[in-house]
Design brief:
The complex is a heterodimer of chains A (283) and B (270). Chain A has 283 residues and is an alpha/beta fold. In chain A, α7 runs parallel beside α8. The termini of chain A are far apart. The relative contact order of chain A is 0.14. With 270 residues, chain B is α/β, with parallel strands linked by helices. In chain B, α3 crosses α4, α3 packs parallel to α5 and α4 crosses α5. Classes of the chains: A alpha/beta (283), B alpha/beta (270).
């Protein structure tokens, strides 16, 4: 089932002459984990914002074509309607947390209260969510007193608790330290195994190699490549063309091929690389 | 030779009593490239702020070229120690690229020709000669970062501190920053604060690790990447190729590049 569909979608911010997104056609199926990558300024963040409807309902500009999210037309729908379908996680947790709650539990309950959900249902969902993100010890702490990584987990949880059908994450670990990044990716790993539809925008090829089924490369407002993760992320010529650095593991296998030490497909994951080295050493 | 930065038994606590630095001792010599790594809140930024006098030691001392920062003002120290912010938008406030880079030297009582010379030189080093008339708001994030670095180069400080120079940069931006750091080392001492271990492994030789207000490691980067207790404590992962080498029996544990890895394979197969 198609959960997200862009049809000839273009977007031009007010005050600009040229569109930042140009005639995009893209379909994402339910349950897919799609990674998005490309240069700074390729239009990736704008594409993320358009799925939740921040484009065109919050940012002014010229909207052309269609975006259909779970059967709902983004252009004619409203942010409040779209927020029940799409969850968008921003780079910085401080942009996300409402500040309406003085504890992690209250912060998580905030969105559900606005939907008029029954109290016992809210309590149940909050408890489940606190457990899922592994913040049981911090549930009565003020979210703004937590570390950056923990705050980003609360921010993701505050989005997930609305039970969105599609989760869009726009460079969710760009501002986090290694510990924060690890905490967030442990959570993303859990979500991926639950089959939630995810669109992850990131610069980190190693993260995508581990999680994504499918990769989209954006360049100058267009989709430059779209395919299964392994074939895209091991295509060194393609990656270089769009300013993306391949994983060091892929580069290693590429260089080993050049030196005639390896003649099989290029490596993507740690498992591939370990197997390659074992095989080469045995010979 | 007097170290350019010497820190003796440095303690720093904020006015609310929170201790941010405990008993720090270190020396940085002219021409070094040093990377400071550690968790958010471990004291990295607080430490470098004591180098340009933005923060003064609660006890102990920081000596810049042998002179204590205690009685020196930041305006004077910033001529010796320049600090480039993590987020360019926290630093940039002039409308054109030229004016932004000219602002610092404009405050140094220099002749107009000298200011012009310094601005053009700094823009050339970072590769923005053609963008000098651009409005700073119209620049990409990659270029904004280069403008903030150029504006510090134009002050010609002996030490340049770069806070998270690769954050928010795409691959091409990061490659430029790497080359630029190596270029800066020719005439400056460079200190980088970074979570990006690929960058650290490429440009720095010495690594300082901060943890919970303490300096817990100061030494060679390869030694740091082999120290599993240190890495675990600070949640730092070495570059993925180093992780691979550490998983393979009999391999050197301090491999940093694909070429080193291949050399090791060839050596072991002989």
């Amino acid at each position: 089932m198609d959960i997200l569909k862009f049809k000839n979608f273009s977007w031009t911010y007010e005050g600009f002459n040229t569109p930042i997104i140009k005639k995009i056609n893209l379909t994402i199926k339910k349950g897919e984990f799609v990674g998005m990558i490309g240069r700074v300024g390729a239009g990736r963040s704008s594409l993320c914002s358009s799925i939740l409807g921040l484009i065109p309902h919050f940012y002014p500009g010229k909207f052309e074509g269609n975006i259909i999210v779970d059967g709902v037309d983004v252009e004619t729908s409203s942010l409040s309607k779209l927020s029940t379908i799409v969850g968008l996680v921003f780079q910085s947790p401080t942009n996300q947390l409402s500040g309406a709650g003085t504890t992690v539990e209250e912060e998580l309950a905030f969105g559900l209260e606005n939907l008029g959900i029954q109290r016992h249902e809210i309590i149940k969902r909050v408890e489940e969510m606190v457990k899922l993100i592994g913040l049981e010890k911090f549930s009565s702490r003020n979210p703004f007193e937590l570390s950056g990584g923990q705050q980003q987990k609360v921010a993701i949880a505050s989005v997930l608790i609305m039970e969105p059908k599609i989760l869009v994450m726009d460079e969710p670990t760009a501002q986090l330290d290694p510990l924060g990044t690890k905490l967030v990716f442990d959570l993303i790993k859990k979500l991926a195994s639950k089959g939630i539809t995810i669109l992850l925008n990131t610069q980190n090829v190693d993260q995508l190699a581990e999680f994504a089924d499918r990769i989209i490369i954006m360049d100058k407002g267009e989709i430059a490549a779209d395919g299964d993760a392994r074939s895209i992320l091991t295509d060194i010529t393609l990656l270089k063309k769009y300013g993306i650095e391949p994983s060091q593991l892929t580069t290693l296998s590429y260089k080993m091929k050049e030196k005639k030490l390896w003649n099989k497909p290029l490596c993507l994951t740690m498992k591939d690389a370990e197997e390659m080295v074992c095989e080469v050493m045995k010979r | 030779m007097t170290p350019i930065i010497k820190v003796n038994n440095l303690m720093f606590s904020y006015p609310n009593g929170v201790v941010a630095l405990r008993n720090i001792n270190l020396e940085i010599n002219k021409g070094e490239i040093v990377a400071i790594i550690g968790h958010n809140g471990s004291g990295k930024t607080t430490l470098v702020k004591t180098f340009n006098g933005l923060l003064k030691p609660t006890s102990g001392e920081v000596l810049i070229n042998g002179v204590s920062t205690k009685n020196e003002n930041t305006a004077k120290l910033s001529k010796i120690v320049g600090y480039v912010f993590q987020n360019p938008d926290d630093q940039i406030f002039n409308n054109s690229v030229y004016n932004e880079v000219a602002f610092g030297p404009g405050n140094l009582n220099l002749k107009k020709e000298e200011i012009n010379k310094r601005v053009l030189n700094a823009l050339e080093i970072v590769g923005l000669e053609k963008d000098k008339k651009m409005h700073t708001l119209d620049l990409s994030l990659n270029k904004k970062k280069l403008v903030t670095i150029a504006s510090i180069i134009a002050m010609n400080p002996e030490v340049i501190i770069l806070d998270e120079p690769s954050s928010g940069q795409d691959h091409e931006g990061t490659v430029k920053i790497e080359a630029l750091i190596k270029e800066l080392q020719k005439n400056h001492t460079v200190i980088i604060i970074s979570h990006d271990m690929n960058l650290v492994s490429k440009v720095a030789s010495r690594v300082i690790v901060m943890w919970d207000s303490n300096l817990i490691f100061d030494g060679d980067k390869r030694t740091a990447f082999m120290n599993s207790d240190l890495l675990k404590k600070t949640d730092v992962s070495p570059p993925i190729i180093t992780q691979l080498a550490q998983k393979i029996k009999g391999f050197r544990k301090d491999i940093l590049t694909a070429d080193e890895f291949i050399d090791e394979i060839i050596k072991l197969k002989k």
